[in-house]
Amino acid sequence: MCRNITFICGLCGIALLMTACPMDYDVILRMENRSNHNLYMCPLGTDTLFYKRYVDFYVIPRKDTVRLSLGGRGNFEAKYREWKADTLSFMFLDNDTLVKYGWDYMRRNYRVLVRYDLSLDDINFLRETLTYPPTPAMQDMKMYPPYSTHFFE
User: Fold this and answer.
1) What distance in Å separates the CA atoms of residue 103 and residue 106, rounded to the nearest whole number?
2) What CATH number labels 24-149?
3) Which backbone phi and psi does 23 adopt, to 5 degrees?
4) Domain ranges of the chain
């Protein structure tokens, strides 16, 4: 009897916590690598010209999908407000090129596979998943180099 009461009280407490306060969660971005090469992805925010000397890189193994927390709590709408931007940039780099030449060379020579400049609507349309190489669904989105110049594997 005492065990049943404890169990019921525990369930009520969990239910109360779940309904009494809004659920905060990390802003998660999925990155899908459909290429035959390991990639690095770097969230640039609004820095499309590589002003930062040091940036965060996230490895995406070939033919794999990785989930990345962009930090903070909330959703992408909150992330765009936090960065005070209507467009956020994300770049993909070739692992071998970065290892061979280093970040300074990549930065000076703008050696990116692709840089996506995405609005909140773009992120929502893509269901919070960035894919390399770009998919046909992304052909009208802002990217450098443009969609039409990508050689698909």
Assistant:
1) 5
2) 2.60.40
3) -85, 120
4) 24-149
